[in-house]
Amino acid sequence: MLKPDNSKLPFKIIDIRGTVIMEHTFDWELPFYIDKQGNLYFNREKYDYPDYQKQEAFKTVVFKDSINKKYAALDAGLADSVKFKLIDDYEIKLLEAYGLKPCEYQTVNREKCDVFEVKNNVLLVRQDELYKNDFAKLPVAPETFDDKVLIRWQNGKLPSPVYLAYYQVTGHKFKCSDMTLPVVIRLKGQNYLFTYSFGLFLIK
Fold it and tell me: What local confidence, expressed as pLDDT, does residue 89 receive?
């Protein structure tokens, strides 16, 4: 999956052989979601895993956007206290339709307030970040089986050391410099070493 930094560039899904499975320009102001089954929701449409050829229009509700639009539509002559009461009542009814309640302590209990899920065939988004991937995992530092070895100094504003490290990932041992969080993943019956800096390597 290639997520571009520039919104005018296409989003791509590519298989391990380099074949482009899908390629679309995406409006990153809209929610982007990959669920645990691998289905993709973007541009207000759902693309079905695994080939993403089947697509259908999909309802999306971004609660913050709905509340902001409601607030903008209120009479400018109303007192702020009246506006806030009307918005609070609107939020209660809006969330109630999807079995949710306003979060009283959003700053303290943010994880309970954040919602990014498919419910009753609707994509519900109740957080500032409009991107979520259910496959994403917190980074875990790889195990090493020996001390790092200094192999050179890299020039810059300040010289920085470059080390050769000895890694061990699920039984596989290897040495490498500049390796960022290596993991072993299994694709179509074969093991691959994956790193964010170098990509995929087939383990033979």
Answer: 92
